[in-house]
Amino acid sequence: MDFNLTEEHIMIRDAARDFAKAELLDGVIERDNEQRFPTEQIKKMGELGFLGMMASTEYGGGGMDTLSYVLAMEEISKIDASASVVMSVNNSLVCWGLDTYGSPEQKEKYLTKLTTGESIGAFCLSEPEAGSDATSQKTTAIDKGDHYILNGTKNWITNGGTSDFYLVIAQTDREKKHRGINAFIVEKGWEGFEIGPKEDKLGIRGSDTHSLIFNDVKVPKENRIGEDGFGFKFAMKTLAGGRIGIAAQALGIAAGAYELAKKYSKERKAFGTEIMNHQAIAFKLADMHTQIEAARMLVYKAARDKDNHENYDLSGAMAKLYASQVAMEVTVEAVQVHGGNGFVKEYHVERLMRDAKITQIYEGTSEIQKIVISRAILKE
Question: Which of 40, 267, 363, 367 is catalytic?
């Protein structure tokens, strides 16, 4: 298996790295403190093509492979996970979902704006009682002939307040269970569509997380994605790819913390020498580097599987499970390497530690990934 990067891959990785250092690093601590959405930075990401990397060029996308996307995600996440989660949702869940399963009319109307960053998208599956148990949708979409009437609440929606378009999963026929679920494109500003207060979060505080409330929202029939009853399959297929993006985010958070810890170990002195010369610190760095490399191989493998049109449910789940675990372990150790300074915001590692935790939760908790993995391996 060859993971050597092409010249194009290296160019994309370096472009993302340069952008993150030039545009995201300055002000990232303040945005985290103030829970401020990186509006200008996201606009620039759209202009540079980072928000529609895998979508068809016909609709304004980059037409790139998944490996290019995860390379860029890693570099952006090293600096600002709040910005990278916007990138992840817009790329993996919204643009990819519409590009793969949307109608030509839906692509022309919505995808062309999402790929360029003119508009931002949100993916709305989770509910108060339907997070990991995605089959238990309480949000309903009643078929009224030429339109649906949408009612319900969605929770923990990334880009919830800043999006223009929302992919909403809802139950149309409860007797059919998961086969009675549909996916719809809902526009901000439609009558009966309300956005709840912004969540006050532990990490990724610059990202925009809200509850959404739908009260008799009229959704045109042409805004349903796919055939009647396709919604649950749409959600699962889309999330499978989204997990690769979150795995890349976790990898980036870990790699960013490791790079800061290694740099600090070369500068900080204790007992007459740089702390990197103390075995206790050197061994921590060795473990961190090894874990990150292992996680990177899993992420690259999942990306390759997707690009080769192979089943990536298993590899994506393994990548997300392990990379998110590594993100937590490495960021905790990065804080430890920094000692008291690690507990101070200006050194960045405490923020990366807080950001790491969400990668074990959203787009399928670690426990859900273990269900996916165990079911796959026990079928063999």
Answer: 363
